[in-house]
Amino acid sequence: MATVTNTLTDASAAHTGDLALLGLMQLVSPALPIGAFAWSQGLESAFELGWVNNEAELREWLAGVLEDGLSRCELPLLVRLQTAWANEDASTIANWNQWLQATRETAELSDEDARLGGALVTLLRNLELLPAEWLIPAEAGYITMFAWAAHKRFVPVRQTLLGFAWAWLENQLAVACKALPLGHTAAQRITEHLRPKLVEAVDIAMEREDHELGPILPGLALGSALHETQYSRLFRS
């Protein structure tokens, strides 16, 4: 007769893992009501200025942002912040939240992080998922609260980074489909091309030392700044 090898502990661990996965899917879903769809992160300006005109150029733009932006800033920050939340280290949380605010090179990028962070705080409060008040830094940004939500959902750090990177890519492609325009099949081709690069970016981000952090994206910063006064816009500035 066959024997059952799964223990109650195994079943509990699998159940927790399933809930963590679903929690991550909820967190990166376009349906999450925090307004991420309203921002283009300089991409709409890149279209207007003729820097990005087609599928191939968009693919290269996104690969560059991933390599010189996310892998140097948001993704390694998520590692540090999620660890700090797990340790209830309010000082470290506040320091990295402040550091991240200082890296935002335009009013538009700063406003996006602040507004998404505030919206996520409001949502988590309504879901009764906020941490203790003394742990939440003043003007908690989106990355900071995303890290908390992932920790609260028992999402492993590496999966947190993959989920965040995936949400970023989906949002950027949604921008392109509305403003370039880009067909949905073309968007899927870009996704297929960049999936391995998301994994590579996470690998790199998890190994970065503190002195290596900071985005190197002058083009994106310039595009974001110019977007603030762009005559015709679909996205917020």
UniProtKB/TrEMBL annotation:
<dbReference type="InterPro" id="IPR038277">
    <property type="entry name" value="UreF_sf"/>
</dbReference>
<dbReference type="Pfam" id="PF01730">
    <property type="entry name" value="UreF"/>
</dbReference>
<comment type="similarity">
    <text>Belongs to the UreF family.</text>
</comment>
<keyword id="KW-0143">Chaperone</keyword>
<comment type="function">
    <text>Required for maturation of urease via the functional incorporation of the urease nickel metallocenter.</text>
</comment>
<keyword id="KW-0996">Nickel insertion</keyword>
<keyword id="KW-0963">Cytoplasm</keyword>
<dbReference type="InterPro" id="IPR002639">
    <property type="entry name" value="UreF"/>
</dbReference>
<comment type="subunit">
    <text>UreD, UreF and UreG form a complex that acts as a GTP-hydrolysis-dependent molecular chaperone, activating the urease apoprotein by helping to assemble the nickel containing metallocenter of UreC. The UreE protein probably delivers the nickel.</text>
</comment>
<protein>
    <recommendedName>
        <fullName>Urease accessory protein UreF</fullName>
    </recommendedName>
</protein>
